[in-house]
Amino acid sequence: MGAESARFARCAACCDVGGTKVLIGFVDRLGNVLARERYLLGAGREPEDIVGELAARLHALADRSSVDWNRVAGLGYGTAGMMDVESGVIFASPTQGAWRDVPFRALLRDAVGVPAWIEMDANAAALGEAWLGAGVGADYFVHIIVGTGIGSGILVRGEVLRGWRGTAGEIGHTTIEPDGPLCNCGNYGCLEALAAGPAIALRAQAAIQQGRRTSITELADGGAISAETVFRAARAGDQVGRDILDKVVEYLGIGLANAITLLNPQVVALGGGVALGGGDLLLEPVRRAVARRCGSWIDLERTRIVLSTLGEDAGLLGAARLVWKSSGDENL
Protein backbone atom coordinates (compact mmCIF):
# COMPACT_ATOMS: atom_id res chain seq x y z
CA MET A 1 0.00 0.00 0.00
CA GLY A 2 1.40 3.38 -0.98
CA ALA A 3 1.87 6.18 1.52
CA GLU A 4 -0.93 8.26 0.04
CA SER A 5 -3.49 5.45 -0.16
CA ALA A 6 -2.55 4.40 3.38
CA ARG A 7 -3.92 7.71 4.63
CA PHE A 8 -7.39 6.65 3.52
CA ALA A 9 -7.17 3.13 5.01
CA ARG A 10 -8.58 2.24 8.39
CA CYS A 11 -6.49 3.76 11.17
CA ALA A 12 -6.41 4.33 14.92
CA ALA A 13 -6.31 7.70 16.63
CA CYS A 14 -3.73 7.65 19.42
CA CYS A 15 -2.74 9.76 22.39
CA ASP A 16 0.16 9.42 24.83
CA VAL A 17 -0.01 11.87 27.75
CA GLY A 18 3.00 12.56 29.94
CA GLY A 19 3.48 14.88 32.86
CA THR A 20 3.85 17.96 30.65
CA LYS A 21 3.59 16.89 27.01
CA VAL A 22 1.06 15.14 24.80
CA LEU A 23 1.84 13.14 21.67
CA ILE A 24 -1.08 12.42 19.35
CA GLY A 25 -1.27 10.73 15.98
CA PHE A 26 -2.88 8.30 13.59
CA VAL A 27 -1.49 4.80 13.08
CA ASP A 28 -2.55 2.07 10.65
CA ARG A 29 -2.82 -1.67 11.30
CA LEU A 30 0.81 -2.26 10.29
CA GLY A 31 2.15 0.32 12.74
CA ASN A 32 2.81 3.04 10.19
CA VAL A 33 2.48 6.47 11.81
CA LEU A 34 0.42 8.45 9.32
CA ALA A 35 0.56 11.75 11.22
CA ARG A 36 1.71 13.00 14.62
CA GLU A 37 1.73 16.16 16.69
CA ARG A 38 3.32 17.03 20.02
CA TYR A 39 2.01 19.75 22.30
CA LEU A 40 2.33 20.87 25.89
CA LEU A 41 -0.44 20.44 28.40
CA GLY A 42 -2.09 23.74 29.17
CA ALA A 43 -2.87 25.18 32.58
CA GLY A 44 -6.30 23.56 32.57
CA ARG A 45 -5.83 20.06 33.99
CA GLU A 46 -9.48 19.23 34.58
CA PRO A 47 -10.60 16.15 32.63
CA GLU A 48 -13.00 18.16 30.48
CA ASP A 49 -10.23 20.62 29.56
CA ILE A 50 -7.82 17.88 28.50
CA VAL A 51 -10.45 15.97 26.53
CA GLY A 52 -11.74 19.09 24.79
CA GLU A 53 -8.32 20.18 23.60
CA LEU A 54 -7.46 16.64 22.52
CA ALA A 55 -10.61 16.33 20.40
CA ALA A 56 -9.97 19.65 18.68
CA ARG A 57 -6.34 18.83 17.96
CA LEU A 58 -7.08 15.35 16.63
CA HIS A 59 -9.68 16.65 14.19
CA ALA A 60 -7.34 19.45 13.07
CA LEU A 61 -4.47 16.99 12.60
CA ALA A 62 -6.69 14.70 10.53
CA ASP A 63 -7.66 17.63 8.29
CA ARG A 64 -4.04 18.75 7.81
CA SER A 65 -2.84 15.21 7.09
CA SER A 66 -5.67 14.13 4.77
CA VAL A 67 -6.70 11.39 7.17
CA ASP A 68 -10.35 10.47 6.55
CA TRP A 69 -12.05 10.73 9.94
CA ASN A 70 -14.71 8.29 8.78
CA ARG A 71 -11.96 5.64 8.62
CA VAL A 72 -10.86 6.10 12.24
CA ALA A 73 -11.58 2.84 14.07
CA GLY A 74 -11.25 4.30 17.55
CA LEU A 75 -9.05 6.19 19.98
CA GLY A 76 -6.39 4.68 22.24
CA TYR A 77 -5.36 6.89 25.17
CA GLY A 78 -2.37 6.20 27.43
CA THR A 79 -1.62 8.21 30.55
CA ALA A 80 -0.08 7.89 34.00
CA GLY A 81 -2.54 7.00 36.71
CA MET A 82 -4.45 4.26 38.43
CA MET A 83 -7.43 3.09 36.41
CA ASP A 84 -9.93 0.37 35.63
CA VAL A 85 -9.58 -0.11 31.89
CA GLU A 86 -12.72 -2.25 31.68
CA SER A 87 -15.03 0.44 33.06
CA GLY A 88 -12.89 3.26 31.69
CA VAL A 89 -12.61 4.99 35.06
CA ILE A 90 -9.41 6.72 36.19
CA PHE A 91 -9.18 6.39 39.97
CA ALA A 92 -6.31 8.87 40.35
CA SER A 93 -3.85 10.65 38.08
CA PRO A 94 -1.29 12.55 40.18
CA THR A 95 0.44 14.09 37.16
CA GLN A 96 -2.84 15.58 35.94
CA GLY A 97 -4.31 16.84 39.19
CA ALA A 98 -6.56 15.81 42.07
CA TRP A 99 -8.67 13.44 39.99
CA ARG A 100 -10.88 10.89 41.69
CA ASP A 101 -12.99 8.26 39.91
CA VAL A 102 -13.31 10.08 36.58
CA PRO A 103 -15.34 8.26 33.85
CA PHE A 104 -12.65 9.19 31.39
CA ARG A 105 -13.36 6.74 28.56
CA ALA A 106 -16.94 8.02 28.33
CA LEU A 107 -15.66 11.61 28.22
CA LEU A 108 -13.27 10.70 25.39
CA ARG A 109 -15.92 8.84 23.41
CA ASP A 110 -18.40 11.70 23.65
CA ALA A 111 -15.86 14.40 22.79
CA VAL A 112 -14.00 12.67 19.97
CA GLY A 113 -16.95 10.82 18.45
CA VAL A 114 -15.39 7.36 18.10
CA PRO A 115 -15.03 4.35 20.43
CA ALA A 116 -12.29 4.96 22.99
CA TRP A 117 -10.08 2.87 25.25
CA ILE A 118 -7.74 3.95 28.03
CA GLU A 119 -4.56 2.38 29.33
CA MET A 120 -1.80 3.13 31.83
CA ASP A 121 1.07 4.74 29.94
CA ALA A 122 3.60 2.08 30.92
CA ASN A 123 1.28 -0.68 29.72
CA ALA A 124 0.69 1.15 26.44
CA ALA A 125 4.44 1.53 25.90
CA ALA A 126 4.90 -2.17 26.66
CA LEU A 127 2.25 -3.06 24.08
CA GLY A 128 4.03 -0.90 21.51
CA GLU A 129 7.45 -2.41 22.20
CA ALA A 130 6.03 -5.95 22.13
CA TRP A 131 4.33 -5.23 18.81
CA LEU A 132 7.15 -3.54 16.90
CA GLY A 133 10.11 -2.97 19.24
CA ALA A 134 12.35 -4.59 21.82
CA GLY A 135 9.76 -7.11 23.02
CA VAL A 136 8.90 -8.72 19.69
CA GLY A 137 8.68 -12.49 20.12
CA ALA A 138 8.95 -12.47 23.93
CA ASP A 139 6.13 -14.29 25.72
CA TYR A 140 7.19 -12.78 29.05
CA PHE A 141 8.13 -9.13 28.66
CA VAL A 142 8.63 -6.24 31.08
CA HIS A 143 9.00 -2.67 29.84
CA ILE A 144 10.24 -0.21 32.46
CA ILE A 145 9.93 3.53 31.88
CA VAL A 146 12.53 5.64 33.68
CA GLY A 147 11.75 9.30 33.16
CA THR A 148 10.04 11.93 35.31
CA GLY A 149 8.63 8.92 37.14
CA ILE A 150 9.23 5.17 36.98
CA GLY A 151 6.61 2.66 35.93
CA SER A 152 6.40 -0.67 34.17
CA GLY A 153 4.20 -2.66 31.86
CA ILE A 154 4.17 -6.43 32.29
CA LEU A 155 3.04 -8.61 29.38
CA VAL A 156 2.35 -12.35 29.50
CA ARG A 157 1.87 -13.80 26.02
CA GLY A 158 0.91 -10.40 24.73
CA GLU A 159 -1.65 -9.61 27.43
CA VAL A 160 -1.18 -7.01 30.15
CA LEU A 161 -0.78 -8.40 33.66
CA ARG A 162 -3.06 -6.05 35.58
CA GLY A 163 -3.76 -7.48 38.99
CA TRP A 164 -7.27 -7.70 40.40
CA ARG A 165 -7.95 -3.94 40.32
CA GLY A 166 -5.78 -3.12 37.35
CA THR A 167 -2.88 -1.36 39.05
CA ALA A 168 -0.10 -3.97 38.74
CA GLY A 169 3.28 -2.82 37.48
CA GLU A 170 3.97 0.13 39.78
CA ILE A 171 7.63 -0.78 40.17
CA GLY A 172 8.47 2.86 40.81
CA HIS A 173 6.63 2.66 44.12
CA THR A 174 8.37 -0.43 45.44
CA THR A 175 10.51 0.34 48.48
CA ILE A 176 14.26 0.23 47.81
CA GLU A 177 15.57 2.19 50.79
CA PRO A 178 13.16 2.22 53.78
CA ASP A 179 14.62 5.40 55.24
CA GLY A 180 15.04 7.08 51.88
CA PRO A 181 13.54 10.33 50.56
CA LEU A 182 9.84 11.10 50.51
CA CYS A 183 8.12 10.02 47.29
CA ASN A 184 5.17 11.82 45.72
CA CYS A 185 3.05 8.78 46.61
CA GLY A 186 3.56 9.55 50.31
CA ASN A 187 5.90 6.64 51.00
CA TYR A 188 9.62 6.83 51.67
CA GLY A 189 12.47 5.31 49.68
CA CYS A 190 10.56 4.33 46.53
CA LEU A 191 12.56 3.52 43.42
CA GLU A 192 11.03 6.57 41.73
CA ALA A 193 12.20 8.87 44.52
CA LEU A 194 15.73 7.52 44.16
CA ALA A 195 16.35 7.01 40.43
CA ALA A 196 13.87 9.02 38.32
CA GLY A 197 14.88 12.25 36.59
CA PRO A 198 13.90 14.65 39.41
CA ALA A 199 15.78 12.51 41.95
CA ILE A 200 18.95 12.70 39.84
CA ALA A 201 18.63 16.48 39.60
CA LEU A 202 18.01 16.81 43.35
CA ARG A 203 21.12 14.79 44.14
CA ALA A 204 23.17 17.09 41.91
CA GLN A 205 21.74 20.18 43.60
CA ALA A 206 22.57 18.74 47.01
CA ALA A 207 26.18 18.12 45.95
CA ILE A 208 26.49 21.71 44.79
CA GLN A 209 25.03 23.03 48.04
CA GLN A 210 27.58 20.93 49.93
CA GLY A 211 30.32 22.77 48.06
CA ARG A 212 31.57 19.86 45.96
CA ARG A 213 33.55 20.84 42.88
CA THR A 214 31.62 19.97 39.76
CA SER A 215 31.03 21.16 36.22
CA ILE A 216 27.29 20.57 36.54
CA THR A 217 26.56 24.22 37.37
CA GLU A 218 28.45 25.44 34.28
CA LEU A 219 26.80 22.85 32.06
CA ALA A 220 23.38 23.99 33.25
CA ASP A 221 24.41 27.48 32.05
CA GLY A 222 22.01 29.31 34.33
CA GLY A 223 19.13 26.95 33.62
CA ALA A 224 17.60 24.24 35.72
CA ILE A 225 19.75 21.23 36.47
CA SER A 226 18.30 18.07 34.94
CA ALA A 227 19.25 14.42 34.59
CA GLU A 228 20.67 15.25 31.16
CA THR A 229 22.97 17.86 32.75
CA VAL A 230 24.30 15.17 35.08
CA PHE A 231 24.78 12.76 32.15
CA ARG A 232 26.77 15.39 30.25
CA ALA A 233 28.98 16.01 33.26
CA ALA A 234 29.57 12.29 33.80
CA ARG A 235 30.52 11.81 30.14
CA ALA A 236 33.10 14.59 30.56
CA GLY A 237 34.62 12.80 33.56
CA ASP A 238 33.03 14.91 36.30
CA GLN A 239 33.34 12.98 39.58
CA VAL A 240 30.08 14.27 41.07
CA GLY A 241 28.23 13.22 37.95
CA ARG A 242 29.81 9.79 38.08
CA ASP A 243 29.02 9.38 41.77
CA ILE A 244 25.38 10.25 41.16
CA LEU A 245 25.12 7.74 38.33
CA ASP A 246 26.74 5.05 40.50
CA LYS A 247 23.87 5.48 42.98
CA VAL A 248 21.26 5.46 40.21
CA VAL A 249 22.76 2.23 38.86
CA GLU A 250 22.67 0.70 42.32
CA TYR A 251 19.00 1.56 42.82
CA LEU A 252 17.94 0.47 39.33
CA GLY A 253 19.92 -2.75 39.76
CA ILE A 254 17.98 -3.56 42.93
CA GLY A 255 14.65 -2.73 41.29
CA LEU A 256 15.34 -4.78 38.16
CA ALA A 257 16.74 -7.72 40.10
CA ASN A 258 13.58 -7.77 42.21
CA ALA A 259 11.40 -7.68 39.08
CA ILE A 260 13.38 -10.44 37.38
CA THR A 261 13.34 -12.64 40.46
CA LEU A 262 9.59 -12.17 40.88
CA LEU A 263 8.43 -12.31 37.24
CA ASN A 264 11.11 -14.32 35.38
CA PRO A 265 10.78 -12.38 32.09
CA GLN A 266 12.62 -13.19 28.88
CA VAL A 267 13.22 -9.52 28.08
CA VAL A 268 13.38 -6.38 30.22
CA ALA A 269 13.44 -3.21 28.14
CA LEU A 270 14.31 0.19 29.58
CA GLY A 271 12.61 3.21 28.08
CA GLY A 272 11.76 6.76 29.03
CA GLY A 273 13.79 9.95 28.82
CA VAL A 274 16.28 9.07 31.57
CA ALA A 275 16.96 5.50 30.45
CA LEU A 276 17.33 6.42 26.80
CA GLY A 277 19.09 9.73 27.40
CA GLY A 278 21.69 8.05 29.60
CA GLY A 279 21.64 4.59 28.08
CA ASP A 280 25.32 4.69 27.13
CA LEU A 281 26.17 5.31 30.79
CA LEU A 282 23.56 3.13 32.48
CA LEU A 283 22.87 -0.03 30.52
CA GLU A 284 26.02 -2.09 31.06
CA PRO A 285 26.48 -1.05 34.72
CA VAL A 286 22.82 -1.89 35.42
CA ARG A 287 23.27 -5.31 33.83
CA ARG A 288 26.24 -5.95 36.12
CA ALA A 289 24.32 -4.70 39.16
CA VAL A 290 21.43 -7.02 38.36
CA ALA A 291 23.80 -9.96 37.94
CA ARG A 292 25.24 -9.35 41.41
CA ARG A 293 21.79 -9.48 43.00
CA CYS A 294 20.04 -12.31 41.16
CA GLY A 295 20.12 -15.88 42.47
CA SER A 296 21.97 -18.65 40.69
CA TRP A 297 18.67 -20.08 39.41
CA ILE A 298 18.13 -17.01 37.21
CA ASP A 299 19.33 -17.63 33.66
CA LEU A 300 20.89 -14.22 33.08
CA GLU A 301 22.51 -15.29 29.82
CA ARG A 302 19.08 -15.64 28.26
CA THR A 303 17.31 -12.94 30.27
CA ARG A 304 17.96 -9.90 28.12
CA ILE A 305 18.13 -6.40 29.56
CA VAL A 306 18.00 -3.96 26.65
CA LEU A 307 17.04 -0.42 25.77
CA SER A 308 13.66 0.08 24.16
CA THR A 309 13.83 0.74 20.44
CA LEU A 310 10.71 2.80 19.67
CA GLY A 311 11.63 5.89 21.67
CA GLU A 312 8.75 8.26 22.29
CA ASP A 313 6.61 6.40 19.74
CA ALA A 314 6.29 3.36 22.04
CA GLY A 315 3.25 4.77 23.83
CA LEU A 316 1.69 6.03 20.61
CA LEU A 317 2.04 2.66 18.89
CA GLY A 318 0.84 0.88 22.01
CA ALA A 319 -2.28 3.04 22.05
CA ALA A 320 -2.91 2.03 18.43
CA ARG A 321 -2.39 -1.62 19.29
CA LEU A 322 -4.94 -1.15 22.07
CA VAL A 323 -7.53 -0.01 19.52
CA TRP A 324 -6.93 -2.96 17.21
CA LYS A 325 -7.02 -5.49 20.05
CA SER A 326 -9.99 -3.99 21.88
CA SER A 327 -12.15 -3.32 18.83
CA GLY A 328 -11.63 -6.77 17.33
CA ASP A 329 -10.49 -4.98 14.17
CA GLU A 330 -6.90 -6.19 14.21
CA ASN A 331 -5.48 -8.08 11.27
CA LEU A 332 -2.05 -8.97 12.58
Structure description:
- Strands 3-2-1-4-7 form a 5-stranded mixed β-sheet, sandwiched between helices.
- It has 2 domains: about 5-120 and about 310-325, ATPase, nucleotide binding domain (Nucleotidyltransferase, domain 5, 2-Layer Sandwich), CATH 3.30.420; about 135-305, Nucleotidyltransferase, domain 5 (2-Layer Sandwich).
- The chain is about 40% helix and about 20% strand.
- The longest helix is centred in the C-terminal third of the chain and has 25 residues, at about 240-265.
- By secondary structure, the chain is α/β, with parallel strands linked by helices.
- It has helices at about 5, 45-65, 105-110, 120-130, 190-195, 195-210, 215-220, 225-235, 240-265, 275, 280-295, 315-325; strands at about 10-15, 20-30, 35-40, 70-80, 80-85, 90, 115-120, 140-145, 150-155, 160, 265-270, 305.
- The two termini are about 15 Å apart.
- It has 12 helices and 12 strands.
- The protein is globular.
Looking at this structure, what is the CATH superfamily of the largest domain? Answer: ATPase, nucleotide binding domain
> Architecture of the largest domain in CATH?
2-Layer Sandwich
Q: Strand order of the main beta sheet, please?
A: 3-2-1-4-7
What's the story with the biggest beta sheet? 5 strands, mixed
**Mean pLDDT over the full residue set:** 92
State the share of residues found in helices, binned by percent: 40-55%
Span of the ends, CA to CA: 16 Å
